[in-house]
Amino acid sequence: MKDLTKLTDRIFYVGVNDRTKHLFEGLWPLPLGVSYNAYLVCGERTALVDTVDACFTGRLLANVRERLGDRPLDYLVINHMEPDHSASIAAVRQAYPAVRIVGNAKTLQMIEGYYGIACGTVEVKEGDVLDLGGLTLAFCMIPMVHWPETMATWCAEERTIFSGDAFGTFGALNGGVTDEQLDVEPFWEEMRRYYACIVGKYGQPVQRALAKVAPLDIAMICSTHGPVWRREIARVVELYDKVSRYEGEPGAVIAYGSMYGNTEQMAETVARGLAAAGVRPIVVYNLSTADVSQVLRDIFRYDTLVVGSPTYNGQLYPPVDALLRKIAERCIPYRRFACFGSFTWAGAAVRRMTEFAEGMKWPVVGAPVELKQGYSTAVEPACRMLVDALVEDMKR
Ligand SMILES: Cc1cc2nc3c(=O)[nH]c(=O)nc-3n(C[C@H](O)[C@H](O)[C@H](O)COP(=O)(O)O)c2cc1C
């Protein structure tokens, strides 16, 4: 049988799939699972690059043992300290007491703080090279992608970058490991969703990291989540470049909240108007039922966002409020933005959405539509004017 975990003669996949966890970080659904990737690099000396989530420590150690046999593990390189990658550090040290743990100063401080390990470590800085004998590992700091200690590790001889969470995606690895061995189609949407939810706040650090790795002649990207990329490197880098520039492509997201259907009816009217004007694609989300990770994914993807909310206890309807907070946290520099809202006795939703846009420094397109009490055709001219203003702005 072909050995799919042998990536090259000297680099081996020893990661695991997680199809058990429902929510990544306790927040983001995992309908296709997720993989925690770790890699063995074998020169005259051996190095394990990153570890896996605590639930899969045993599997990781078995994978490493199977591959190394009686050989010692000389180094454990830690690119990223988030526990889905670092939680097995202590177990690796227990299994291989002589292993030296390699990380930058921030990483080593975190290893001590999380796992109480302070000895047998090697501190590395930008550009330092670890000689494995016939193979080298060079370290490149990529802070805030997406923790401050994050670094990438470059193996020049194999033209391979171990990129941490950069270029990562949700989705377990179904049989294959590399993009040549897998159906990669489901991963593109999952990569956008992963980026929007996990890394989305850190567009500038991702841009700086991309600039750093640009001169490298990369033959293989070994990220900590998702396929090992070989054939699709250009597409992966292009996608990460695009999303980290917050560049929206033509298309509209309409995200609304509604308890009794009146705000929802306005959302339908606005969506119908945009569709009649030829806007494509249009994605409409009821925020009470939508998976917010998909909403964020599409807000990162498309250039237009229209939000609708009832007034609720003098505030925004809570799911709308929650979405707007998530958008604000991610510092998205620009989206074409319009809004509509409803109330019964004292409206606040439209005012709050307008304040949100001001806070984001997004100009509000058109006059926000504010519905008092029940939906009727009387509100439709205002909705049409909102649509006209959006369509006019799209033409610019
Ligand atoms: C718990 C609750 C709190 C509300 N608070 C306000 C309010 O502070 N001011 C107001 O004018 N209307 C308030 N309303 C009325 C809603 O804004 C109104 O029912 C809603 O805008 C109708 O839109 P919908 O049919 O899309 O749910 C409240 C309704 C509920 C159920």
Secondary-structure map with pairings?
Elements lengths: L10 E3 L2 E3 L4 E2 L3 E2 L4 E3 L2 E4 L3 E4 L7 H12 L6 E3 L5 H4 L2 H7 L4 E4 L1 H11 L5 E3 L5 E3 L4 E6 L9 E5 L4 E5 L20 H15 L3 H11 L6 E4 L9 H12 L4 E8 L5 H15 L5 E5 L5 H10 E11 L2 E2 L1 H12 L6 E8 L5 H12 L8 E4 L7 H16 L1
Helix pairs in contact: 5-7, 5-9, 6-7, 8-12
Bound molecules: flavin mononucleotide.
Flavin mononucleotide (FMN) binds next to helix 8, strand 18 and strand 20.
Rg calc: 24 Å
Specify the CATH homologous superfamily of the largest domain. Answer: Ribonuclease Z/Hydroxyacylglutathione hydrolase-like
Bound molecules: flavin mononucleotide
CATH architecture of the largest domain: 4-Layer Sandwich
Write a structural description.
Helix 8 links the parallel strand 16 and strand 17 (282-286). The protein is elongated. It has helices spanning 57-68, 83-86, 89-95, 105-115, 185-199, 203-213, 233-244, 262-276, 292-301, 318-329, 349-360, 380-395; strands spanning 11-13, 16-18, 23-24, 28-29, 34-36, 39-42, 46-49, 75-77, 100-103, 121-123, 129-131, 136-141, 151-155, 160-164, 220-223, 249-256, 282-286, 302-312, 315-316, 336-343, 369-372. By secondary structure, it is of the alpha/beta class. 35% of the residues lie in helices and 23% in strands. It has 12 helices and 21 strands. The strands form 5 sheets. It has a 6-stranded mixed sheet. Strands 16, 17, 18, 19, 20 and 21 form a 6-stranded mixed sheet that branches. Strands 11-12-13-14-15 form a 5-stranded mixed sheet, with no helix packed on it. The protein has 2 domains: 11-244, Metallo-beta-lactamase, Chain A; 249-395, Flavodoxin domain (Rossmann fold, 3-Layer(aba) Sandwich), CATH 3.40.50. The longest helix has 16 residues, at 380-395. The protein binds flavin mononucleotide. This is Flavodoxin. Pfam families: Flavodoxin_1, ODP. GO terms for molecular function: electron transfer activity; FMN binding; metal ion binding; oxidoreductase activity. Residues 252-391 form the Flavodoxin-like domain. In the N-terminal section; belongs to the zinc metallo-hydrolase group 3 family.
